[in-house]
Amino acid sequence: MVKRIAMVAGEASGDLLASRLIRALRVHHPDAEFFGIGGPQMEAEGFRTLWPCDRLAVHGYVDALRRYRELSGIRRELLARVLAECPDALIGVDAPDFNLWLEQRVREAGIPAIHFVSPSIWAWRGGRIRRIARSVSHMLCLFPFEPPLYRDAGVPVSYVGHPLADEFPLVPDRAAMRERLGLRPDARVIAMLPGSRDSEVRNLAGIYIETAQILASRHADAIFLVPLATRETRRIFEQALYDAGAEELPLRVLFGHATDAMTAADVVLVASGTASLEAALLKRPMAICYRIGKWQYRLMKRMAYLPWVGLPNILCDESLVPELLQDAATPSALADALDGWLEDPAACEQLAERFTELHLDLRQDTGARAAEAILPYLERVTERSA
C-alpha cells in the first residue's frame, strides 16, 4: 500500500530538513506521497505543495500578531484537508507555534503526529512541554541534551543529530575557499553575518560597520565579507554603509554564500542562531552579537533558563565564545572580542578541537535516523488497516 504523509515545514531551514527526510523515507517507501506546506527543496523530492513554506515566515511578535488571521486560516484549511485525505502520518518540521496546534488535532483524530526539531524548551517557555505531550506522538531532537527532557514528561523521543554536522566537513579547507573567492592567502579575513531577516539587519548593520571600521584601522590587511540572504537585506546593509560614509571599507557584500564566507574567514562576527552553530562546525572562532527591541529583550531575559544565547556555548555547556547582547554590543567591544581571537592562535586551535568534538557528537546521519524513528508509526497504520 502506498504511504501518504502530510508535512508542514516553516521557512528555508525547515524546507531543507524536510527534503532530506523525504529522501530518507523513500529508501523504505519509494512510492510514498508527500503533501502539505513546503518549499522548493521538498518539491525537488516530489513533494506536493498546497502552500509555500514562506507563507509561515514571521518576523517577531508584532508580525505574528498582524498576520494571525491569515496564518490561522491557512492552518484550519490545512487541517480540513489532512482530515479529509487521512494520511498515514503528519510530520511537522519546526514552526512549533503553527504545528503543535495542528498536530494535536490530527493526533486526536487517530493520525500519528511527529514533530521534527524540538522547540527550545531548554532555553525558555519550558511549560510548553505539557502542550507538546498532548500534541505529538513522537519528538525528533537535533541536540543530545534534549531527549531526557521529553522522557521525563512521558513523550516518545529520538535523538537524530543535526543535519549540518552531516553536511559540513570535519576539516574545512580555508585555503581552497580563499582561492575560490579571490582572497589573498595571508589576509586577515573577517566574516560578518548580521542575520537573515530584515529586522535583524536593520538592528545590526550600523554596529557591524562601525566594528569593521575599528578593525580596519588596526589591521591594514583586513578584508570583510558580509553575506546577505535577500535583496532587501542587501539593500538595508548597503544603505547603512552609505549613511556611515564607509563605502571605502575593504568590505565585500555577498549574495548568500554564508558558509563560503565563514570557511574563508579567520574569525566570524555572527548574530545568535543557526549561523553560530555553522561557525562552530566550521571550527571558526567567533563573537556572538544580538540586539532586539528593548521590551522583547526584557521579556525573554526574564523567561530564559540558561546563561547563554549562542548554540556553541549552550551545546558545549561552557562559555567558549564571547556573547555581546543589547547595550553590551558596542562596536569597540565587538572589535576587541574579535581581536582577542586574531591575536591568540593557540586559543583558536583549542577552540577548534572543542568544536570538532561537538561536530562528531552531532554527526548522526540525521535523515536516516529520523526515518527510522518514523517508520514504526507507518507500520502501525498498515497493521490497523489490515
TrEMBL record:
<dbReference type="InterPro" id="IPR003835">
    <property type="entry name" value="Glyco_trans_19"/>
</dbReference>
<keyword id="KW-0808">Transferase</keyword>
<dbReference type="GO" id="GO:0005543">
    <property type="term" value="F:phospholipid binding"/>
</dbReference>
<dbReference type="GO" id="GO:0008915">
    <property type="term" value="F:lipid-A-disaccharide synthase activity"/>
</dbReference>
<comment type="pathway">
    <text>Bacterial outer membrane biogenesis; LPS lipid A biosynthesis.</text>
</comment>
<dbReference type="GO" id="GO:0009245">
    <property type="term" value="P:lipid A biosynthetic process"/>
</dbReference>
<keyword id="KW-0443">Lipid metabolism</keyword>
<protein>
    <recommendedName>
        <fullName>Lipid-A-disaccharide synthase</fullName>
        <ecNumber>2.4.1.182</ecNumber>
    </recommendedName>
</protein>
<keyword id="KW-0328">Glycosyltransferase</keyword>
<keyword id="KW-0441">Lipid A biosynthesis</keyword>
<comment type="function">
    <text>Condensation of UDP-2,3-diacylglucosamine and 2,3-diacylglucosamine-1-phosphate to form lipid A disaccharide, a precursor of lipid A, a phosphorylated glycolipid that anchors the lipopolysaccharide to the outer membrane of the cell.</text>
</comment>
<dbReference type="GO" id="GO:0016020">
    <property type="term" value="C:membrane"/>
</dbReference>
<dbReference type="Pfam" id="PF02684">
    <property type="entry name" value="LpxB"/>
</dbReference>
<comment type="similarity">
    <text>Belongs to the LpxB family.</text>
</comment>
<keyword id="KW-0444">Lipid biosynthesis</keyword>
